Amino acid sequence: MGLEDDSLDPTLPGTLEREHELAVAAALQPVLRYRWASQVADLRWDDFIKRLGTRAFSDAERDAKKPPYALLFGTLAPSHCRRLGAVKAGDLSDVLASKLRELGADYAPFEAELTQAAAALRAADQQRKLLQADDATHDLRRRALLDELETLVDATELGVLTARPGDGDSVRAVLSPWKDVTRVNRDDGKDAPDAPPA
Question: Per-residue pLDDT averaged across 7-31, rounded?
Answer without folding.
Answer: 65
